[in-house]
Amino acid sequence: MFNLKNPVDLEFGAGTLNLLANKVSHLGKKALLVTGRSSAKTSGAQDRVIRLLTDSMIDVVIFDQVTPNPLASTVTAGARLTIESSCDFVIGLGGGSAIDAAKAIAVMAVNPGVITDYQPGGPLSLIIPQQALPIVAITTTAGTGTEINRYFVITNDTTHEKPGFGYACSYPTVSIVDPELMLSLPTASTLDTGVDVLFHAMESFVSKGATRFSDMLAEQAMDLVLDNIQKAAGNGQNLEARTQMAWANTLAGWAIDLAGTVGIHSLAHPISGHFNATHAKSLAAVGPAYFDYNQTANIPKYAQLAEILGLHDHDFELSDDDKAARVGQLLHHILKVLGMPLSILDLGVSEADLDRLVTDTLATMRGGLDNNIKPLNADDLKAIYQHAMHYHPVEHHCDCHE
Ligand SMILES: [Fe+2]
Predict the structure, then answer these.
(1) Among the three residues 182, 211, 234, which one is the final residue of a domain in this structure?
(2) Pick from 149, 151, 153, 227: which is nearest to 194 by CA?
(3) How sure is the predictor about 396, in pLDDT bands with cuts at 50, 70 and 90?
(4) What CATH number has the domain bearing residue 251?
């Protein structure tokens, strides 16, 4: 028994940005355009979007103040500008940061207080915003999947907590996924965003909320990432690889909308919030330790995951128990090849920080923990962080002669 609703009107494929004015003309006559500080300008995407809109008599107000790990104060400033300039809808142009900020701005333009009031423990945390201005997502990266789901992540300037939000009103009304916009994405960002996609797919696959439909999305997304991430990173102009990564991103973003993430995103967000590490690097640094800790939670599912991640041919004869035990090791190997950090020490975390990280995980990222098949208490979380400081893949011996 499961639900399949998704309200996003999404255009996918090379050249779809040209449909923009047509797709948004019913949303109003004035748009707030939310971007980061430079990449949308240098790539020319910002100018293209402005031209497409103004040629169709839609006024554009630019808000280009979004930083990586977007801040609550930025959302407040954007919402104020939206109100003062009477914008009818909000466009996020960029990666997850710009689009997540656009979602939060669209919500806060028509709801009381500031976004942090709605985070767990905040004064309005029990209130579910019921409306937002229409949101348009134009994604220039293949990561986060925010163009197809309700979620957005905003960092609290004061506490450095990094809670995720998601409401029925925060789905994009229209999304444009045009892989041509991703051709200029630098190698490091290509790898970071692609690793985020891999984690969305892997986490939804082993979540309590997984269904046969979300599994179908996740399996396809994992295959596409594993086949294409190095091609896209190695040659950014490879439109075919960019298209496959973009599709993997949309599939995995939908998978987490349906099935949710699990403990890895929960453990990673506080690291990004406190140490300003990228989202993907935080995920990579805790991922293998997490899978080692949880591999007995659903043996058949973890065994299947090991096969997707690339067991050797001779390992297909193993028992499901043994396959499941290899997931952390296989992921560690993939992340090593991609040059991801393999320890949270690499991100600046020390033993003295762990209690604070555990407290933050429990306070702000409870949803992912509740979605974990195996219950995770504070001691479990600390044990995973400790393992993630000095991760050693479990040694598996075989009698093969490769
Ligand atoms: Fe993510």
Answers:
(1) 182
(2) 227
(3) low
(4) 1.20.1090.10
Domain boundary residue among 182, 205, 224? 182
The DSSP result for 77-122, as a single string, is HHHHHHHHTT-SEEEEEESHHHHHHHHHHHHHTSSSS-GGGGSTTS
Q: From ligand 1's centre to the CA of 146, what distance in Å?
A: 9
What does the pLDDT look like over 280-332, one tens digit per residue?
A: 999 999 999 999 999 999 999 999 999 999 988 788 889 999 999 999 999 99
**What is the 279 CA–ligand 1 centroid distance (Å)?**
7
CA 248/CA 245 separation, integer angstroms:
5
Condensed to tens digits (0 to 9), the pLDDT of residues 164-177 reads 999 999 999 999 99
Single out the residue of 12, 164, 154 nearest to residue 69, CA to CA. Answer: 154
CATH number at residue 44: 3.40.50.1970
Average pLDDT over residues 174-188: 97
The bridge status of strand 164-166 relative to strand 151-153 is antiparallel
| Centre of ligand 1 from the C-alpha of residue 14, in Å | 24
CA geometry: angle at 219 spanning 211 and 287, to 5°?
95
Counted domains in the chain: 2
How far apart are the C-alpha atoms of 151 and 241, rounded to whole Å? 26
Predicted TM-score (pTM) of this structure: 0.93
